[in-house]
What does this fold into?
Amino acid sequence: MLRKCSWSLLPVCLWKSSRLEVLRMVAEGKSNQEIARALQVTENTVEKHMSNVLDKLGLRSRTEAALWVVKHGLLETEG
It folds into this structure.
């Protein structure tokens, strides 16, 4: 389940809601193809968003991005 977040607490690079949504979906384990389909964009757009987010947050992988989302409370986990 996705949690609403306070825009003032997010890094500027995530203020574009589509970037945040891509990041959340990555944390849910979705592929670029699944994300693109859900957001009605191309896979290339998803890849660009992820590349921008990884670069601006100083992360190296989708796994690090997923962990970042959970750590910052942007994704509710079960348990």
Observations:
- The helical segments are 17-27, 32-39, 43-57, 62-71.
